[in-house]
Design a protein that fits this description.
Elements lengths: L7 E4 L3 H10 L3 E2 L7 E6 L4 E6 L1 H8 L13 E5 L3 H13 L3 E9 L2 E7 L5 E6 L4
Parallel strand pairs: 1-4, 5-8
Antiparallel strand pairs: 2-3, 3-4, 6-7, 7-8
């Protein structure tokens, strides 16, 4: 057996704020948003991340959601083409008042920094030579 696709489903406490955040970063919306859902595509393969209103996601997982402003759940890594591009992303995150939780730094042979979206979901931009 083989899976056809994979995507992520995360919570958004404010769909409009989520739209503003990812649109300001230049990411493309995947379809039209509703009161309970907005989706964005990331990377060359159009990885989809759906952002659901809390009640909708709680219903889907049949359980409570974690508080991502306090707890950690996952970190998504977004690849960059160069050290300079990582720095440009860092500057952009700061311009739109995103939360940087890890300043740019060399990591093994790469270069990275970490940020979180308005709901506390963690991401990092990473340049890794030959990736």
């Amino acid at each position: 057996m083989k899976t056809k696709m994979i995507w992520a489903n995360l919570v958004s406490s404010d769909i409009q704020k989520t739209i503003q955040f990812y649109t300001a970063l230049g990411f493309k919306q995947n379809g039209e948003e509703t009161k309970e859902l907005v989706s964005f595509v990331f990377g060359e393969n159009d990885f989809v991340i759906n952002f659901f209103a809390p009640k909708r996601l709680e219903n889907a997982i049949k359980g409570k959601l974690s508080n991502t402003n306090v707890d950690n759940e996952i970190i998504f890594s977004l690849s960059a083409n160069s050290v300079e591009e990582v720095d440009l992303w860092h500057q952009k995150i700061k311009e739109i008042k995103g939360t940087v939780f890890s300043e740019p730094e060399n990591f093994e042979v790469g270069y990275t920094f970490g940020f979180s979206n308005p709901d506390g979901h963690k991401f990092n931009f990473l340049y890794w030579p030959e990736m």
